[in-house]
């Protein structure tokens, strides 16, 4: 198995099935924990020096921080309903507690916090999530911007993408591994994949211009892929719809990417001539 793949495990005593930290990924900024809680089970996590975004991938729960209490939130009972989720932004030196009211899947995206300015905890409601259809043809996908750069946070960026079976995402390929603003920003990135039906798979490639990194991976339901650098396109194979959650952060909180010049021509949709 590629070192870029982090597979999910059976739930531990806390319900955690996936854990990625800056230390385990051998980079500087981001992490991701995923929990699958049974009804009545709870999860509590202190943020410490990290800021986090807790996304209710599916299910309903009560959610608490130092200052906020929300009862019975959650709108998406199945991940592939393709409606925006509820999320909670939580700053450094705070905590989050989630009490599951149904079976719940939770993604805890994290990034090294930025102490100035400090932003308070807040609920990100489904109506606050920007929904966008990107691409054309078999590059069409549905994007939910949960914590984009237009919304307040220190360094963390969070987005989720639904890719129909037989389609491609993060395509044409792009990268963001250079501090070269305003043209390109340096951002570490995690892809957390879910596949429907869940016995299927997807394909992800991560490669650099000089091919010093060039891996094409088969990923299954629950796998995460680390993207430390390079281009990183994804394919949902025929018959299997694909969801992924993206976590990104770097020294500057902006998403400026560089396209692979070999495939940049695909950004222009083909012009169809009308027949007389």
Automatic annotation (TrEMBL):
<dbReference type="InterPro" id="IPR024203">
    <property type="entry name" value="Deoxy-glucuronate_isom_IolB"/>
</dbReference>
<keyword id="KW-0413">Isomerase</keyword>
<dbReference type="GO" id="GO:0019310">
    <property type="term" value="P:inositol catabolic process"/>
</dbReference>
<dbReference type="GO" id="GO:0102482">
    <property type="term" value="F:5-deoxy-D-glucuronate isomerase activity"/>
</dbReference>
<dbReference type="InterPro" id="IPR014710">
    <property type="entry name" value="RmlC-like_jellyroll"/>
</dbReference>
<dbReference type="GO" id="GO:0008880">
    <property type="term" value="F:glucuronate isomerase activity"/>
</dbReference>
<dbReference type="InterPro" id="IPR011051">
    <property type="entry name" value="RmlC_Cupin_sf"/>
</dbReference>
<protein>
    <recommendedName>
        <fullName>5-deoxy-glucuronate isomerase</fullName>
        <ecNumber>5.3.1.30</ecNumber>
    </recommendedName>
</protein>
<dbReference type="InterPro" id="IPR021120">
    <property type="entry name" value="KduI/IolB_isomerase"/>
</dbReference>
<dbReference type="Pfam" id="PF04962">
    <property type="entry name" value="KduI"/>
</dbReference>
């Amino acid at each position: 198995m590629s070192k870029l793949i982090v597979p999910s495990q059976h739930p531990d005593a806390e319900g955690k099935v996936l854990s990625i930290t800056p230390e385990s990924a051998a980079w500087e900024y981001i992490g991701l924990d995923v929990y699958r809680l049974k009804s009545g089970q709870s999860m509590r996590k202190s943020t410490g020096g990290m800021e986090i975004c807790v996304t209710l991938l599916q299910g309903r729960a009560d959610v608490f921080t130092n200052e906020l209490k929300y009862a019975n939130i959650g709108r998406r009972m199945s991940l592939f309903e393709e409606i925006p989720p509820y999320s909670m932004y939580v700053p450094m030196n705070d905590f989050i507690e989630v009490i599951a009211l149904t079976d719940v899947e939770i993604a805890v995206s994290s990034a090294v916090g930025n102490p100035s300015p400090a932003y308070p905890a807040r609920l990100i409601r489904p109506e606050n999530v920007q929904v966008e259809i990107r691409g054309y043809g078999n590059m069409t996908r549905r994007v939910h911007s949960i914590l984009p750069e237009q919304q307040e946070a220190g360094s963390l960026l969070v987005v989720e993408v639904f890719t129909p079976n037989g389609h491609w995402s993060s395509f044409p390929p792009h990268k963001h591994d250079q501090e070269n603003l305003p043209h390109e920003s340096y951002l570490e990135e995690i892809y957390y994949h879910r596949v429907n039906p869940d016995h299927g798979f997807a394909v992800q490639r991560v490669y650099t211009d000089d091919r010093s990194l060039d891996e094409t991976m088969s990923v299954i339901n629950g796998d995460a892929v680390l993207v430390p650098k390079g281009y990183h396109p994804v394919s949902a194979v025929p018959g299997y719809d694909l969801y992924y959650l993206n976590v990104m952060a770097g020294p500057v909180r902006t998403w400026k990417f560089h396209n692979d010049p070999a495939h940049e021509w695909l950004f222009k949709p083909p012009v169809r001539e009308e027949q007389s």
